[in-house]
Amino acid sequence: MKALVKTGPHRGLELVEVPVPEIGPADVLVKVAATGLCGTDLHIDSWDTWAQKTVRAPLVVGHEFSGEVVAIGSSVTDVAVGDFVSGEGHIVCGRCRNCRAGRRHLCINTIGIGVQRDGAFAEYVAIPSTNAWVHRDPVPADVAAIFDPFGNAVHTALSFPCLGEDVLITGAGPIGILAAMVVRHAGARHVVITDLSDERLALAERLGVTRAVNVSRSSVAEAQAELGMREGFDVGLEMSGSPVALRDMVGNMTHGGRIAMLGLPSAEIALDFSTVVLNMLTIKGIYGREMYETWYAMSVLLQGGLDISGVITHRFDHTDFAEAFATARSGDCGKVIMTWN
Hints:
Layout: E1 2-6, E2 14-17, E3 27-36, H1 39-46, H2 49-54, E4 59-60, E5 64-72, E6 84-87, E7 90-91, H3 97-100, E8 111-112, E9 124-128, E10 132-134, H4 141-145, H5 147-157, E11 167-170, H6 174-185, E12 191-195, H7 198-206, E13 211-214, H8 220-226, E14 233-238, H9 243-251, E15 253-261, H10 273-278, E16 282-285, H11 293-303, E17 312-317, H12 321-330, E18 335-339
Parallel strand pairs: 11-12, 11-14, 12-13, 14-15, 15-16, 17-18
Antiparallel strand pairs: 1-2, 1-4, 3-5, 3-9, 3-18, 5-6, 6-10, 7-8
């Protein structure tokens, strides 16, 4: 089969022939239909410091995908051949304290598909059956392929109640925009999103945010004034990993405000914790998706009329992977999809 592989400890990926993966008794084999490009894939492609410390080549990359189950292991009873699935990208041990307590998203032995084991940028991928999310209702292949990042957005956006609240989102990448769509759907009053990319901010505006603020030209405080807000934001969703963005968010929260932080900083952040203490702010770290409550919420949100397809701006055949990666790296886009049929 064709697969996109990190063939050695160097920059770049290659589309090469590799064997179809074998499955164990508890696994399923998925014929991949569509895949989404993630920042993790860009790190592995560029072979930066994180990738050098984390990835062992050769490796089939990619962890956002959808496809049809074409084979199941002998002990699999909850997934059937012919099922259309998305894949949870984190494989957990099932034995640590958190796994046994039902908190699988906190497993201390998590292994990442496309990071520590062969992934989904291929014609076929093998995963444990427990990692296959079966779509019982029709979902387009490209939308199903982004259930992984959609899950990050849902997990972050629904960490705190949003009904009637004013929400600030820092970072208008695809996950930030998805989070904005979720909180609007969940009943937020004002949703303000910030970024430095006019293209991404324009996409966020088209998809329903109240204000899209380019912080190189305007401020969050000015957006508050324009909206008639007097006491700051109730909920903050930090999606950028930017030290400046987090400090700006802390400075614009109401007393007792709650911040969910998904963005991963590349270095330590200096923060005025006197503001956090005196204003009684809550800062909660978010990683991945709750297994599988977040997945249930995602399906229900789509069943309830939330249409996330607009966040997908570019689609490429897998043979055009170089152009797909260049587009995703440019930042002037929403979600980038590669098809494998």
